[in-house]
Amino acid sequence: MKNYLLIALLFTLIISCKPDEAKKQILIGKWQGVSWTVAGKDAGREAQTVNFEFNNDDTYSASFGGQEEKGSFRLTNDKLYTT
């Protein structure tokens, strides 16, 4: 009986999440750049100095060198939009 209850609960959680919401949960947290490419080629910039933090309340912050940016974000399909 417990197994059926657990399966039913997991099924409900899976179908109740919107696809973009599930992707958003993967994005939440702190990120550091690994590579920086433009048109598929190395841009010659230090990607490791780029940092992002995405929050549950749909806000984000980013920094690169001495530059900082804050705003809101949204995911639509496989695209990330920032404002």
Task: Considering the chains and any ligands shown, give keywords for the structure.
83 residues, alpha+beta, 5-stranded antiparallel β-sheet, two-stranded antiparallel sheet, 2 helices, 29% helix, globular
Question: Can you tell me about this structure?
Answer:
The chain is an alpha+beta fold. 29% of the residues lie in helices and 40% in strands. It is built from two helices and seven strands, in the order H-H-E-E-E-E-E-E-E. It has helices at 2-16, 19-27, and strands at 29-32, 37-38, 41-42, 50-54, 59-64, 67-76, 79-82. The strands form two sheets. It has a five-stranded antiparallel beta sheet with strand order 1-4-5-6-7. A two-stranded antiparallel sheet has the order 2-3. The longest helix is centred in the first third of the chain and has 15 residues, at 2-16.
Order of helices and strands: HHEEEEEEE
Could you tell me the mean pLDDT?
A: 82
Look at the helices and sheets and give the structural class. alpha+beta
Radius of gyration: 18 Å
> What share of the residues lie within helices?
25-40%
Percentage of β-strand residues: 35-45%
- What is the helix tally? 2
Specify the overall morphology: globular
Strand order of the largest sheet: 1-4-5-6-7
**The biggest beta sheet, please?**
5 strands, antiparallel
Distance between the termini: 48 Å
Number of strands: 7
Low-confidence segments, ≥5 residues, pLDDT <50? none
Question: Helices and strands in order, then pairings?
Answer:
Blueprint: H1 2-16, H2 19-27, E1 29-32, E2 37-38, E3 41-42, E4 50-54, E5 59-64, E6 67-76, E7 79-82
Antiparallel strand pairs: 1-4, 2-3, 4-5, 5-6, 6-7
